[in-house]
Design a protein that fits this description.
Layout lengths: L8 H25 L13 H6 L8 H27 L2
Length: 89
Amino acid sequence: MTGYQVVTSAVREEAAKWDEFASEMSTVRGALSGLTLSPLAFFAADAITFAVFPLNLPTPPEELQRSYEDMRSYIEKLASEAETEFRDR
């Protein structure tokens, strides 16, 4: 076929961009994996308040921690999937 020219430089430039995106998502995913919290992070009372007043919390700290962990792990999963998607480009 005459009259056609394949330009591969643009494809190579595009590939480098997606590799950089994947690398950035890998960094984000790594940061997200370390953002876990214990149930104590969702409890704010000192020892005196705890001793004097009955503990009638509207939502137990363990439940708040589970909700946080569900959302954190979901976002981490999305970052991991984005990294995989960008690498496959």
